[in-house]
Amino acid sequence: MSLFLKRFVSAVEGVSGLGAAFLRARGGFGARLAAVLQSASGQRNALAVLRLGRPRLALPANPVKCYAGEGALLLTRARDFHAVIERQAEFEVVYGPRMRMLTGGRDFFLGMQDGAAYRRDTDAMRRIVRPDDLLPVLAMARAEAAAALAGTGVDLPPALSARIPALMVQRYFGVAMETDQLIADATAMFHFLFSDLDAAPAVTDRALEAAARVNAAIDASIPHAGPETLLGRAVEAGKAGEAAFDPDGIRANIIGILIGAIPTLSKAACLAVEELLRRPGDLARARAAAESGDEAALAAHLWEALRFNPLNPILYRRAARAATLGDTEIAAGTMVLASNLSAMFDEAAVPKPWRFIAGRPWNVYLLWGEGLHLCWGDRINKALLPAMLLPLLARPGLRAVSPPDGEGTPFPRHYRLAWD
Fold this sequence. Notes:
The protein is α+β, with helices and mostly antiparallel strands and 420 residues long. The protein is 55% helix and 8% strand. The strands form 3 sheets. A 5-stranded mixed sheet has the order 1-2-8-5-3, covered by helices on one side. Strands 4-10-9 form a 3-stranded antiparallel sheet. A two-stranded antiparallel sheet has the order 6-7.
């Protein structure tokens, strides 16, 4: 089958899926449309239509109001996604201004362009990570997950998916802070940095209050941070003259990795479980892997579930100068919306993209970015998610009692599950 025909079939199925979902939704036209496009399945179907008909869709206004941009361009094909992420000098990350609000003025490498400061900080952070650091983290995760599932039901985020990453921040990162407050504050800051598309003042207020608490906790933790913690190693490296770890640098780098650790792992866990629960056959195969204690086999099911239901459907960059992408001219200042969700379903890049196939090559999964700004915790995520979800997914008759509930935020605060 030719590539055009594959895309045509996907687009037809996408239109059919959108129509059926629209008819099932409730409310008026606007409410129904919003419900469809807010769902992962609705987004997949809409993006399939765009990959065929308008793979580079110009938008008159920038929908990412929290960061300045003149208009926007939505990209839906894998080739364009990779080009934008790889051409970081032309398509810049935009998070710097908000990141500096949280750190008190110091840059964190996630919001930097490539250069001497970026290389200094990323290299310094890599040097304080040791090859065997994950062993005690994974042992903790397995023990805590098993303990959290002693009954016949669980509220996933507070009991497991957010709590375990928070314990990692306390014990491995070295930040002493009350667990529930740490979860709430990390989530508030992540929301502010990456998901506050409407630039809501209330989101800003919560994030700045959270940053003040977490920065104070980092400062208070420094005298007690041992060599088993990243904070303790950063302090010692700073004393030895490492410029990335002067007092402001310690605070900025630790709060930066802290922000990404808790809400991303927790939401990814909820989304993966939610997607598997939609697929009884794939859930049964995931359960078989979990029952056998095979974390690698379970991980293959989790990554495929997250391909269908990823943490975010789009990565955004801004054109630093006028650029071209194929035959499309992009004006300086344009907000470029590169859809990783669509790229993971692009018929030109992924064989049989609409089938759930556990064990695809890792380069298919655009879950935490790629290239220069690949998530710093990519290695942690890949190991910790299957470790903490294995006991849950081994439970027979696993089912949702209620859907994930963010209580007005994009991050699940509750997801109640039960089993036989």
